[in-house]
Design a protein that fits this description.
InterPro entries: ClpP/crotonase-like_dom_sf, Enoyl-CoA_hyd/isom_CS, Enoyl-CoA_hydra/iso. It holds the Pfam family ECH_1. This is Enoyl-CoA hydratase-related protein. Keywords: Lyase. By secondary structure, the protein is α/β, with parallel strands linked by helices. It folds into 2 domains: about 5-200, Alpha-Beta Complex (2-enoyl-CoA Hydratase, Chain A, domain 1), CATH 3.90.226; about 205-250, Lyase 2-enoyl-coa Hydratase, Chain  A, domain 2. The chain has 11 helices and 10 strands. It has helices at about 30-45, 65-70, 75-95, 110-115, 145-155, 155-165, 170-175, 190-200, 205-215, 220-235, 240-250, and strands at about 5-10, 15-20, 50-55, 60, 100-105, 105-110, 120-125, 130, 170, 180-185. Helix 1 runs parallel beside helix 3 (about 75-95). The relative contact order is 0.11.
Length: about 260
């Protein structure tokens, strides 16, 4: 179905693979269009409980934007249009109701780091490297990576990375809090699937609401977030899934969640 992607679903877990190995999985406008089509299908499919994003091969997660294509964009308006198109796509990825795990299998440079930062959880192969290299091309982040990085590791550390273009090894990114887990390359996808499976085993409604709480509370006061948490809790408390979980516990069996 897709020229630039591989998309599959198994055991309620979707895997989206950027599949452009000839350009180290660089993001083109065609790739963005296909990612939006995948997000459309995920939003309609309530059976999908977790999404894993990765790159094909072992060299690159996403090496950045497709420079050969993007060098044709020369005006301010060209830059603005491209920026908002991809930023809006990554906003959709970040705001999916389900958890999104980045399995960083190789280099994640420039826009590749921005893609990873839009995911909820990042697992990196120990051979992976990350870096906001835009400054080396006399540009800056434009797909949401700057604000997301500052939110994740703080202003001063983010500023250093954005203005030096330094490349981080996976373990360095782990120490800074940019990635959450580092594993051997051969174990990467299994580690992502293991985490996804543990998430998918729980009530889809409770998992979605936990993510909704963490996303939405960023714009709230602390007291507002506490009140919002209680409102979300009241919905899951009265849900069929909660009743099923209690009954399964009493009956010593595995619960059968429906997401409602």
């Amino acid at each position: 179905m897709y020229k630039n992607l591989i998309f599959s679903v198994e055991n309620n877990i979707a895997i989206l693979t950027i599949n452009r190995p000839e350009v180290r999985n660089a993001i083109s406008l065609g790739t963005v269009e296909e990612i939006n089509a995948v997000l459309d299908s995920i939003e309609k499919d309530q059976s999908i409980r977790v999404l894993i994003v990765t790159g094909s091969g072992d060299r690159a997660f996403v090496s950045g934007g497709d420079l050969k294509e993007f060098e044709q964009l020369v005006t301010i308006e060209d830059g603005r249009r491209m920026s908002f198109l991809i930023k809006n796509t990554l906003n959709r990825l970040e705001n999916l109701e389900i958890p999104v795990i980045a399995a960083i299998n190789g280099v994640a440079y420039g826009g590749g780091s921005e893609v990873a930062l839009a995911c909820d959880y990042r697992i990196a192969a120990d051979s992976a490297k990350l870096g906001l290299l835009q400054v080396k091309l006399a540009i800056m982040t434009s797909w949401g990576g700057g604000p997301r990085l500052a939110r994740l590791i703080g202003r001063s550390k983010a500023l250093a990375l954005l203005t030096t273009g330094d490349i981080l090894k996976a373990e360095q990114a782990l120490e800074m809090g940019i990635v959450d887990q580092v594993v051997e390359p051969a174990e990467l996808l299994d580690a992502a699937k293991d985490l996804a499976g543990r998430m998918a085993a729980n009530s889809p409604l409770a998992v979605r609401y936990a993510k909704l709480l963490l996303n939405d509370q960023r714009e709230m006061s602390f007291q507002g977030a506490l009140n919002y948490e209680s409102e979300l809790f009241s919905v899951v408390w009265a849900s069929e899934d909660h009743t099923e979980a209690v009954n399964a516990l009493k009956e010593k069996r595995k619960p059968n969640f429906k997401g409602r």
